[in-house]
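# nightly structure sweep
# worker-07 picked up a monomer target from the shared queue
# config: single-sequence mode, recycle default, output format = structure tokens
# input follows
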Amino acid sequence: MKKIAAFMMALVLFAVTAVGIHLFAGKRIEANNREFGTWISSKKDLSYSAVAANLHDDTYLLLGSSEFQHGQDTPYHPTAVFGQAGLDVMCIGAAGNQCLPHAITMGALAPELKSKKAILLVSPTWFGKGGIDANNFSARFSESMYRAMLENESLSDELKEKLIARTDELLAVSPSMQENTERATRVLMGKESLTAAGSVKPLGLEDKVNFYIHSFLAQEKERISAGLMWKLSGHENYDEYEAGQISTPNWQALKEQADREFAAQCSNDLAMRDKLYESKYKPILKSRKNSETKRSFASSPEYDDLRLFLAICADQGIEAELVLLPLNGYWYDFTGFPRENRDVVEGKVQEVAAEFGVPLHSFYDQCYTRGWMEDNTHPAGRGWTEINEEVFEFFTADQENAG
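# output follows
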């Protein structure tokens, strides 16, 4: 009797806490501001409710990784370009993001993505021998995105099972997070739980209550974190969303401006921005010389994770495009990474894209174009401008055809 009373008291306290948290955080996410999409923040990326609430009729999804964190203070970054062009683009990605986190995100957001268009910026460095690093995956893992994916009734059970298996495998480095996701899977997929002895027992009321309490608290934590960072970044919430008036940027002018700026900022043999070269690469030249002679992109579990991402897009009726980014060829020649071992990535990504009938726009032929990259893997002004031009054309193609 005491146990039941304690349990009921815990539920009452939770209900009071939940109402308080919800009232405190409730108005911190409804941005209704196109700047929210191109605001680069891992807090935003992790919050399903924050992102889903800002997917409007004209919102397109742009998924990537660490490139979003480079060039944010320049006129070439998506934040500046798409803001001025009036195009509502939701950018999701940071260092450590690869195909699998984006597959989970797509499985969660697809029902809310009314434009049904998405682009994945694919980095060649994802396709290492081991695929995504487990610690990177756990750092970029969103419990709320995972739960929303499981709750997506239109997503096939087969694809959910593949996501569940890969997630469980990689979260072994984070036992508490793994336990939370396993509980979510059992409750939302109707699976039974196993005792330590291996016998099966039905899910009990306590199991379900613990799941819903944890889910609510985790989601509100994500909402509060995203909302506070949004406000601290100096952004505003609006009562109503207003679609932008789309205009095509002057791509040629941006490219010429970027080329002039880069020429004044690069005097080294590795075609990097001098500031980055001096601070990050020059100190390690001796240790990195011919250090990657055994490296290869020929075989990687990342190719299957890419297949899983595209399978989810197909299942959800999402028109997807892959954009393959280049590497700095001068740097990887220096490190001894055999060119044939890295160039193989383009053909293998093309094969995966062809399996799903998805277009691939490859910038891989820009590996030796000075001014395209600012360091070993991230785009400089010209790189960002050409990426944004392709993104803009893909997302606005239907509007141009209609016009």
